[in-house]
Design goal:
InterPro entries: ABC_urea-bd_UrtA, Leu_Ile_Val-bd, Peripla_BP_I
Organism: Chitinophaga jiangningensis
Strand content: 15-25%
Structural class: alpha/beta
Keywords: Signal
Distance between the termini: 51 Å
Number of strands: 15
Signal peptide: 1-26
CATH class of the largest domain: Alpha Beta
Mean pLDDT: 89
CATH architecture of the largest domain: 3-Layer(aba) Sandwich
Protein name: Amino acid/amide ABC transporter substrate-binding protein, HAAT family
Number of domains: 2
Helix content: 40-55%
CATH superfamily of the largest domain: Response regulator
Amino acid sequence: MTSAFFKNLSLFALTAAIGFSSCNQGASKSASTDSTATSKETVKIGVLHSLSGTMAISEVSLKDAVQMAVDEINAKGGVLGKQIEPVIVDPASDWDLFAEKAKELLIDKKVSAVFGCWTSVSRKSVLPVFEQNNGLLFYPVQYEGEECSNSVIYTGATPNQQLIPAAEYLMSEKGGGYKKFYLLGTDYVFPRTANKILKAYLLSKGIPKENIIEEYTPFHHQDYQTIISKIKRFAADGKACILSTINGDSNVPFYKEFANQGLSAATCPIMAFSVAEDELRSMDTEFLVGHLAAWNYFQSNDLPENKKFVDDFKAFCAKKGLPGGDKRVTDDPICWAYTGVYLWAKAAEKAGSFDVSKVRNALYSLEFNSPDGLVKMDARNHHLAKPVVIGEIKPDGQFDILWKSEGLVDPQPWSPLTSPDKDCDWVNHNGTYAKK
């Protein structure tokens, strides 16, 4: 299965690179045009997603979602009478290059907003660039919280919109009443911080310290035999589960070895925070069926607006000749990358301007009917209020929704358990912007 996965990954990366080359040529051509000649007709936005390297398998789809939103908005007349012109760059899964490309977009290309990044390390790499140059980044991926920048609009989940509900569900009667938790992740900022929050939460709920194990593996780790043996011993007396922040291709050998040693979702379920439909389409789901994931959106959401979004995305990919064509799937980050463009456009229309400060102010409390239903920007902290969903992996790579929050869950960027003295109140009580 591993070789098949990498074969698919290599093919995907090759076709994505071909598609990007075409897009980049178009972007370069646009960029070479005199900006004064185009400024009356277009407004530029930056697209900062890895189109090559290890993260391309996930980030290419976000570039596609942004482009689809742009095409839809342009077909309806654009924003403030101007067509949106995306300037696409490739940071190539290189965290330092993310910062360089962000500078290029903000300083050289003079874009009005940027849509991009996936990993927390890429986001933290570009953060000083946006803060020093009054830029605005729309970040579409769930993250570890413990951050709140006036230069970032976080459309992905905060810990209380993903991590905490997942742990709470597993402890509940409906979720299995689990009492032992193995926190396993890739060794970088998101898993480390996420598990710090999860551990604090579990302890606050009376889970004994000895019932919580925390372990990390490097990126691209392939040999999980020893770790699964430890998990098997840990789960031998029942009521044990795994909270997984493993990222990327390490999930393939992890799930396979889990099954090889006789473990299953019935005996020790895995709750994943970084496995979604787009990753599953390149993996053999034989060893994943029955395991769980927590997100804010699943393609299987039966809302009419989501069914249209799914159909439109498949049609868009087929029309553009993108890898996978009409077999493409949607997932949580794709949903929020798409939603971010609409939030920016709606805020610009509300502000009557593309000025960053004015757009930022217009975003506060802004509502949008996304593919996931109605969502709302918080009035203070640059994050979205939205639903939380927990799903079970099916053989076709989709999710059966097991649980959904009642209504929208307000975002908490700073965990009250680990950072009770911190907040990010960016707005004065009269609604004006409080910080520069």
